Amino acid sequence: MILGDNQIKSMPTQQEFAEKFEKLPQRIKEIMLSSETAETNRSIGTKYKLSIEQTGDMVSVIVDTILKDIPLENFVAVLQQKLGIDLQTSQRLTLDIVIKRFLPIKEYLPGTETLIQKLGGNVPKTVPPSPSSASPNIVNLKNK
C-alpha cells in the first residue's frame, strides 16, 4: 500500500517536535524517555533482525504515532514503507509494538485494542507494565 499525502502528515521540524513533546502528558513523556522503553525497542529490532537504521526508523514511526503525526490506523503501512519490509512482517512487527509499546498507554492512543484484534492478536488480560514514573532509569535528554 502506497500512502497518499492525506494519510500521513509531514514530519515535524525539531522545534515542532519539542513543542509537541512538551504538550504530552507527563506519564507519556516519562515512558518515552525511559531506558526500559529503549530496551524494548532494541529487543523488538533484534527479534525481527532489523538493521540499526531500520530500528531507528521503527522508533521514529512509534514516536510519530505517539505525537499523533501518524494515525494509529496507518501504522502498519507506514512501518512497511519506512522499513522496506513485506506486509506480513510489518503486521507481525506492528502487533509486537502495539502490545509492548502502545497497550500500556492505550488511554492516550485510542484504538490500540482494536488494532491488536484487527492484526489477529489477542488483547492480553494484563497490560504489559509501562516504566513507572518513579523509575530511576529515566533518561533526561535536556542535560545531554
Structural features:
globular, mainly alpha, 7 helices, 144 residues
General description of the model:
This protein is mostly helical and 144 residues long. The protein has one domain (14-126). Helices cover 54% and strands 0% of the residues. The chain is built from seven helices and no strands. It has helices at 14-23, 26-33, 35-47, 52-66, 75-83, 87-102, 112-118. Helix 4 packs antiparallel against helix 5. The longest helix is centred in the middle third of the chain and has 16 residues, at 87-102. The protein is globular and about 35 Å long. The model is unreliable at 1-7 and 133-144 (pLDDT under 50).
Number of helices: 7
Unreliable residue stretches = 1-7, 133-144
| Number of E-type strands | 0
User: How much helix, percentage-wise, in residues?
Assistant: 40-55%
Radius of gyration: 15 Å
The main β sheet shows up as: none
State the separation between the terminal residues, measured CA to CA. 39 Å
